[in-house]
Amino acid sequence: MTQVTVMPGRISGTLTANASKSAMQRACATALVCLRPTLIHNPGHSNDDNAALAIITQLGARIQAQPNGSLLIQGVGAQVLPLLDANGLGQLDCGESGLSIRMFTPLAALSAWPVMVSGRGSLITRPMDFFDETLPQLGVACQSQQGKLPLRIQGPLVPANITVDGSLSSQFLTGLLMAYSAVGACGVTITVSNLKSRPYIDLTLQLLQSFGLKLPINHQYERFEYTAEPFEPVAQPLPLDYTVEGDWSGAAFLLVAAAVAGSIRLQGLWAHSKQADKKIVEALKSAGAAITVEADAVEVAKKMLVGFSFDATDCPDLFPPLVALAANCTGLTRLKGLGRLKHKESDRGVTLQQEFAKLGVKITLGQDDIMLVHGTGLISVQEPQLHSHHDHRIAMAAAVAALTATSAVSISHANAIDKSYPMFYQHLKQLGATVLENN
After folding, report:
1. Superfamily of domain 3-18+246-438
2. Residue pair 118/94 in contact by the 8 Å Cβ criterion
3. Cβ(248)–Cβ(20) under 8 Å?
4. Cβ proximity of 178 and 165 under 8 Å
5. By C-alpha distance, which of 315, 309, 247, 310 is closest to 276?
6. What are phi and psi of 295, to 5 degrees?
7. pLDDT one-digit tens code per residue, 369-428
8. What positions carry a catalytic annotation?
9. Burial 205-243, CB ≥16 within 10 A → b, else e
10. What's the whole-number average pLDDT of the chain?
11. pLDDT tens digits, one per residue of 34-50
């Protein structure tokens, strides 16, 4: 499927949210460095989820699919052992997953064997200077291609007092926290400046605690202190059960679709979730949508929508669905956090501006970290052919906007959704949307 065409129309119905890839990938990482076997229920099946499963296999874990669809994972604890080629070199293929490469590289560095870390697509253009600057301070040799992939690393990583810059992505910090906890770090502190996306660190800490790994003391997200008390994980024969929660990131698109074009009841979304993109609820309320949040479900219905202000600094993945929402609002919408969009699957600020201009929506990229969406409440198609830029969230935002457009909208490279939400178009169809798929 390389192109889809979405027709204008209303949607309604009940669905279950797809599994959170943020939680699924972290569960794979913690299961890898946990000595106790893990049963992962409701596992995700996106490209990024599959990349994480392949990676932990490359690092020594064993995975068995269960008849009920769950996965039984036997980890290796801190004794990570990469699969070696004929030259004695481990290979770590992270696909196109930014979280995987940032989280699993420090875990691969726990091994004394050399490992080549690679990726594909937009991942090869993303900056990896963090590893060049940080890993040598932890006893790990690291060689990149002028701050880009591939990386050649060789540990073992030894936890030490370190200061890192958290302004680019919290995912780098997630990788370090995972590695430090895996070896039961003692008497060391990770100091962080200007940390972004704090809710994702909350999710990481929640996973470490759930899997029985050593948990650092969180000093207001500025210092993560591993106390001097020794910590010895205990191997147990009975599996640890972990259920992957619903994905607020993917759900945001369906919730916005309902707010602009109908109604939905979306099940499997936890109200107490640590996921950053749960803040879509606040944005929908600010825009005037009718919304009800239950313990494990959300209901949204269309009402008159008005421009709103929203700080997406800690949840930058919400920008695409927020733009689709703002385009259907009357009045100006101010979205803060524009600087977080530069190094995504595309330069999302520019991409959103270009593609939504084809729908008659004016977007201004400000100098003060603000995106302005000039909403008129009308999606007036100027050019019916949109391009995903191989970015899953751009493809989904375009599809949502098409529901209220003045004519049909086609999206090229629409299969970009496989990265995070392979069932997205199918779910739109189940809600009554007309989505035509062309290969």
Report:
1. Enolpyruvate transferase domain (3.65.10.10)
2. yes
3. yes
4. no
5. 315
6. -60, -35
7. 999 999 999 999 999 999 999 999 999 999 999 999 999 999 999 999 999 999 999 999
8. 317
9. bebbebbbbbbbeeeeeeebbbeeeeeebeeeeebbebe
10. 94
11. 989 999 999 999 999 99
Number of other residues whose CB lies within 10 A of the CB of residue 422: 19
What is the pLDDT, as a whole number, of residue 110? 97
Q: Is the pLDDT of residue 289 over 70?
A: yes
Q: Answer whether 3-18+246-438 and 21-229 agree in fold.
A: yes
Rounded Cα distance, 165 and 173, in Å:
9
Bridge partners, residue 81, by sequence: none
Q: What angle do CA 206, 209, 211 make, to 5 degrees?
A: 110
CATH number, span 21-229: 3.65.10.10
CB atoms within 10 A of CB 292: 11
Global pTM value: 0.91
Cα distance between residue 412 and residue 397, in whole Å: 13
Q: 3-state class of 231 per DSSP? A: coil
- Domain borders along the chain are 3-18+246-438, 21-229
